[in-house]
Design brief:
Number of strands: 21
Number of helices: 26
Enzyme class: isomerase
InterPro entries: DEAD/DEAH_box_helicase_dom, DNA_helicase_ATP-dep_RecQ, Helicase_ATP-bd, Helicase_C-like, P-loop_NTPase, RecQ_Zn-bd, WH-like_DNA-bd_sf
Oligomer: single chain
GO molecular function: helicase activity
Radius of gyration: 30 Å
Number of domains: 5
Distance between the termini: 79 Å
Keywords: ATP-binding, DNA-binding, Helicase, Hydrolase, Isomerase, Metal-binding, Nucleotide-binding
CATH class of the largest domain: Alpha Beta
Protein name: ATP-dependent DNA helicase RecQ
CATH topology of the largest domain: Rossmann fold
């Protein structure tokens, strides 16, 4: 029986039907059309490229900047017996070489690549020899300078078109303005415009925005009143701990999360929140990507996000089960001021970027004319402290250095230790006989890890140490000794970001940086912040504001956001005031003071407003300073 999209969905994922828009996207891909799909966070984007790729001969290449998410997806595919691998910063040249060979000669169905991998000539050349059936570009907004999370490495993706001009491209993102939508298609070389999107309206989300002096107290009220589990977003790592401690002191099970934690701690905290062992996770924006917890009842922002795109994504982690949920933003005037002041940190001047480059080369002891292709673990906090630089400003400088192809910087991600034996079984056995000290270690590896002669296999040194009854430090020493004797390649674990130099070191005075581009990006950022201010100061409907920002034509108010609720309340109050005025004036004419005092509904300004409206329509008239109900 011929396989269909639905039969693949049922066979590998166990679902009987697709979510909204998934089937239409898959159909476009199967027709070979370049497609841009706009789907909300948690809308099932991965299914849109995984299903058609499984229906076609060849391999699907998936580009994603989120290494942790790539690893999760590879693991989930393997659990379904779908061959998949990922290549990202931190892997050795030999590891990448073997992985790419498997994509050409093996049965690999999905290759996940971090975009900066395309800086590598070897990766490009191997892709040329692959039987590729689809390019899937996740977080596609990152390619646009008009977007909120522009990543220079995404500009390399046009090379995929040059390598495989006939292979269709599926670009996926949760948020994009009309300008970004056009830019994505242009930068990815779409044959013709083809956009499929869901409405940006989330009917079950009641957006709330409050100018609040006591943000902590208001947050506590929100969490206590709404109930269930939720996320509190803050701007920096210190705040995550302070807010989590505040919630714990008020009897709410909470924990904190940020990118500075080691991988094991992050996974433990995330699992505790996902399984409802804790109610609230207090986090920086490092938390949330790839998390599909359906029963999140609230997302509280204690700081204003950098853009409406970021806010929409983070707020959208609430209510994925379709039940009512509350994204709540709490801010003060000082927060608004800080948002604007941070622009200067995000767009450093040319001299500062030169300074960062010079210090960076010295930090890693790179000689002039050397360094091209070298990759290092990189702790930006340690680097900034050593040279007395602002961390945010330094990260911004690194981004512009990456844009002009001086370096590539990946996100922090846990990469486990790996080993591969570089000799055949017979030679390794002879070594075991001659070196009894290494025999238990080698046996433990061969018993626990398959494919170690062919691939780099992830290992756990602590588990090995436990099995052979030796200290962890001695096991690591022995593994390094095997490498020194060229019997194996051992790569130690890391959870640091990876920094790669793409060009030989030059004198900082000869450093080329596109300053015009920086000025353009700064202007874009200013417009994004102005859009946030407009959202905060809105008078109509929060959902409509977001829909209009993303270019969606809509006129119907949501009826559940704070502005709609206030308007409905005022409407109800106005109606009651009008009925009271009619009752009083039909009984007898009254002077203004007596009439207003007798109403006792709403504020005085509301009573006067309704009275003026009734007079404008001649429903109420004034004679000899007495107000009469005009019965016509």
């Amino acid at each position: 029986m011929e396989k269909t999209s639905l039969s693949i969905l049922k066979e590998y994922w166990g679902y009987d039907k697709f979510r909204p828009l998934q089937e239409e996207i898959i159909q476009e891909v199967l027709l070979g059309n370049d497609t841009l799909a706009l789907m909300p966070t948690g809308g099932g984007k991965s299914i849109c490229f995984q299903v058609p790729a499984l229906l076609r001969e060849g391999i699907c290449i998936v580009i994603s900047p989120l290494i942790a998410l790539m690893k999760d997806q590879v693991e989930n595919l393997r659990k379904r017996n779908i061959p998949a691998i990922a290549i990202y910063s931190g892997m050795s040249h030999r590891e990448i070489d073997i992985a790419l060979d498997n994509c050409i000669f093996g049965n690999i169905k999905f290759l996940y690549l971090a975009p900066e991998r395309l800086y590598n000539d070897m990766v490009q050349e191997r892709i040329r020899h692959m039987n590729v059936n689809l390019f899937a570009i996740d977080e596609a907004h990152c390619i646009s300078q008009w977007g909120y999370d522009f990543r220079p490495s995404y500009l390399e993706l046009i090379k995929l078109r040059e390598l495989k001009p006939k292979v269709p491209v599926l670009a996926l993102t949760a948020t994009a303005t009309p300008k970004v939508i056009d830019d994505i298609q242009d930068k990815l070389g779409f044959q013709s415009s083809n956009v499929l999107s869901k409405s940006f309206r989330r009917e079950n989300l009641a957006y709330m925005v409050f100018d609040e002096e006591n943000k902590m107290g208001r947050m506590l009220k929100v969490i206590s009143k709404i109930g269930g589990t939720g996320i509190v977003y803050v701007r920096n790592r210190r705040e995550t701990q302070e807010v989590a401690r505040y919630l714990l002191n008020h009897g709410i099970p909470a924990d904190f999360y940020h990118a500075g934690l080691d991988m094991q701690s992050r996974a433990k905290k995330q699992d505790a929140w996902t399984s409802n062992q804790i109610r609230v996770i207090v986090a920086t924006n490092a938390f949330g990507m790839g998390i599909d917890k359906p029963d999140v009842r609230f997302v509280v922002h204690l700081d204003i996000p950098d853009s409406l795109e970021a806010y929409y994504q983070e707020a959208g982690r609430a209510g994925r089960d379709g039940k009512k949920a509350y994204p709540v933003m709490l801010y003060q005037q000082s927060d608004r001021n800080e948002l604007w002041e941070n622009i200067d940190l995000s767009f450093p001047d040319f001299q500062f970027i030169q300074q960062v480059y010079h210090h960076l080369c010295n930090y890693f002891q790179i000689a002039y004319g050397a360094g091209k292709g070298l990759t290092y673990d990189f702790d930006v906090v340690d680097f900034s402290k050593k040279y007395k630089l602002d961390v945010v400003k330094t990260l911004s400088a690194l981004k512009f250095l990456e844009r002009d192809k001086w370096l590539a910087l990946s996100e922090a991600v846990y990469i486990p230790a790996r080993i591969k034996f570089e000799v055949d079984y017979q030679e390794l056995y002879r070594f075991q006989v001659q070196s009894a000290h290494f025999d238990p270690l080698i046996k433990a590896i061969l018993r626990a890890y398959g494919g170690v002669f062919d691939y780099y296999v992830p290992i756990n040194e602590f588990e090995i140490a436990k099995k052979i009854g030796k200290p962890y430090e001695e096991v690591v020493k022995m593994l390094r000794s095997l490498q020194q004797q060229e019997l194996a390649t051992y790569v130690a674990k890391t959870d640091a970001p990876q920094l790669q130099f793409l060009q030989p070191r030059v004198d900082y005075k000869n450093l080329y940086i596109d300053t015009q581009f920086i000025a353009e990006r700064k202007a874009i950022k200013e417009e994004q912040i102005k859009a946030i201010y407009q959202y905060l100061d809105g008078k109509d409907c929060r959902s409509l504001s977001l829909q209009h920002y993303f270019g969606e034509e809509a006129t119907e108010s949501c009826g559940v956001c704070d502005l709609c609720v206030i308007r409905q309340h005022k409407s109800g109050v106005s109606e009651s005031i009008e009925k009271k005025i009619q009752y009083l004036l039909l009984e007898k004419p009254l002077p203004l003071h007596d009439l207003i005092e007798a109403i006792e509904i709403g504020k005085e300004e509301d009573r006067l407003k309704v009275l003026r409206s009734l007079m404008d329509s001649d429903t109420v008239k004034i004679e000899d300073e007495l107000y009469h109900w005009n019965a016509f």
